[in-house]
Amino acid sequence: MGDSLDESLDYNKTVGVNLKELTYFDAFKDLTDHLNCTYHNETSLISNFKTRKSSILILSANICSLGDKHLELTNTFDRYALGGIVPDILAVQEVWNHPSDSLGIKNFNLFTKQRSTRRGGGVGVYVRDTYNVKILENASIFEESIFESLALEVEFSTDLKYIIVSCYRPPTSPTNTPEIHNDIYFRSLKKQLEELEKYKLPCIILTDSNIDLLKVGTDPNPIRLANGMAEYSYVNIINKATRYANNSHTCIDQIWCNHP
After folding, report:
1. pLDDT tens readout for residues 103-135
2. Which residues pair with 207 in a beta bridge?
3. What is the C-alpha to C-alpha distance for residues 187 and 146, in angstroms, rounded to an integer?
4. Of the candidates 124, 5, 11, which has an alpha carbon nearest to the alpha carbon of residue 69?
5. Which residues contact 56 (CB under 8 A, 6 or more apart)?
6. Phi, psi of 59 (to 5 degrees)
7. At 188, phi and psi to the nearest 5?
8. pTM for this prediction
């Protein structure tokens, strides 16, 4: 939230953290070369999007307790509005266990899917209240502490519908080995993609998968994820590191689209 990425323009010049530099992703160049993946802080985001009146603005964040961050999130949306932009969609991961009716934002409807037995996790989507929304229950696969998702059909206009999915994969399971955790996750992902395909609509999956695509050469899960998505014609439109901590960087937050 806010201007936490104060050096956003410098980050845009950082080398060695771009998926396009990894040989495995050469196969996707024709689909992603036209995309402009750029870091923003709050100021540059407002500056870039306030003139794009016809664009749909979709945001995603691992909120790590929506109840604790609700005031900060509300204030951020207020600053966006003052700057001349209003997001259409905000997907959130790790909403944790909070009553949804206490987490509202003016002019938005909130949809959540939360854990029933354990603390943490859960997903949600804020949608501007001018849009018609349908919850797609069959596609909202929810394996607690393994694969947690919520799928919505959003009608932006009479001739423009999208499926919006917020999805979270915890890095570990409290009851399963890493192998079983991953197997259940990828089975659930395949089941979800099969369900989504039935709707024949453009789809955007916003996820914190805790699978680092930058480790494509050292960890089997990034390739397993990318191949699984590609099987259903999805590509990741985020081609840079999404998290920095000291000297480390990861790309565990992704946006997968079947119409890049």
Report:
1. 999 999 999 999 998 999 999 999 999 999 999
2. 167, 254
3. 11
4. 124
5. 88, 89, 156
6. -115, 160
7. -65, -40
8. 0.91
